[in-house]
Design goal:
This protein is of the alpha+beta class and 288 residues long. The protein has helices at 24-27, 56-59, 61-67, 71-89, 107-116, 118-128, 171-204, 218-221, 240-253, and strands at residues 10-19, 40-44, 47-55, 96-97, 103-104, 131-140, 209-212, 227-236, 259-267. The longest helix is centred in the middle third of the chain and has 34 residues, at 171-204. Residues 149-159 have a biased composition (Pro residues).
């Protein structure tokens, strides 16, 4: 932080960037942001950043560090952020969402960011216009939620389950049984991994770009089973119906492989924005 300037009670939370068509303000008249604040547009050289004033005590570096482990607070902020982006996306050719908790000291800092990244934002808007992000998650069936063996890729037991082992009559017999059980589990995990990869490959043919993310922890998501695919797909809007139909068809066949397919979207292209502040520290702290 710049120690020569007085502490601020408010910061500007930045939500998204879009082209200045003059319509952004009207779409946001009834929308509130992450702190229940009104949202307005900051314009600079043909681009718009949507911002709202938020308490510095919550959103400065110290405040965020204290709240990063507060899942309820993070969920509240994420929902507010999404609410603004959704409102901005209603009728806009393209909206570039910014990273959660991107904040600036003042409007001058927001304008500097727009000016310094003008070319990158323009290129991203050109590339992503007319496209939407769809999310697909594949989970194992609830009964397969236990942990996999150490070596094979994550996935659930599927199809027929191994028979209960008979009681071992010797140490050698016990080791043979354990080896057979492990081999059966590994084969089951391989089968599920192949099924999940097949679904991803089929959907990728309908998308222009894809992003793969680490599996989600079922303890945090509340979903039964294990997450074996967590992917985002960039799809031209005209291909949206074909994409959702493909997901529905694959989801209908997935249970026979012990899988469950979840589709979300369409969203603004969160996963496919490049060259914007979400790839850098969220604070304008070093700029006076």
């Amino acid at each position: 932080m710049n120690r020569d300037r007085p502490d601020r009670t408010e910061l500007l939370y930045a939500y998204a960037v879009l082209r200045d068509t003059g319509a952004a303000g009207s779409r946001l008249e009834t929308v509130t942001g992450v702190a229940g604040e009104p949202v307005r547009a900051v314009r600079e050289d043909g681009l718009v950043v949507l911002v709202g004033p938020v308490p510095a005590a919550e959103f400065d570096e110290k405040g965020l560090r204290e709240r990063l482990e507060d899942l309820a607070w993070l969920e509240h902020v994420a929902r507010g952020h999404q609410r603004v982006v959704d409102a901005a996306s209603d009728g806009a050719p393209c909206v570039l969402p910014l990273r959660l908790a991107t904040v600036y000291r003042d409007e001058a800092g927001v304008r500097r960011m727009l000016t310094s990244r003008h070319a990158a934002f323009g290129a991203a808007l050109d590339r992503l216009e007319g496209r939407a992000e769809w999310g697909v998650k594949i989970h194992t069936a609830a009964e397969g939620a236990g942990g996999p063996p150490a070596a094979p890729p994550p996935g659930p037991p599927s199809r027929a389950r191994p028979r209960a082992p008979r009681a071992a009559t010797s140490g050698r017999d016990y080791l043979r049984q354990r080896a057979a059980e492990r081999q059966a589990r590994e084969e089951e995990w391989r089968h599920v991994d192949e099924a999940a990869r097949g679904i991803h490959a089929a959907l990728a043919t309908l998308a222009e770009e894809t992003r793969l993310y680490p599996p989600q922890n079922p303890r945090l998501t509340g979903h039964p089973g294990r997450n074996v695919l967590n992917a985002a797909y960039l799809v031209p809007r005209e291909r949206g119906p074909a994409f959702t139909a493909a997901v529905a068809a694959l989801a209908g066949r997935a249970p026979r492989d012990g899988l469950r397919v979840e589709l979300t979207g369409p969203w603004a292209p969160y996963s496919f924005v490049t060259g914007e502040p979400s790839r850098e520290p969220a604070h304008d702290a070093g700029t006076p």
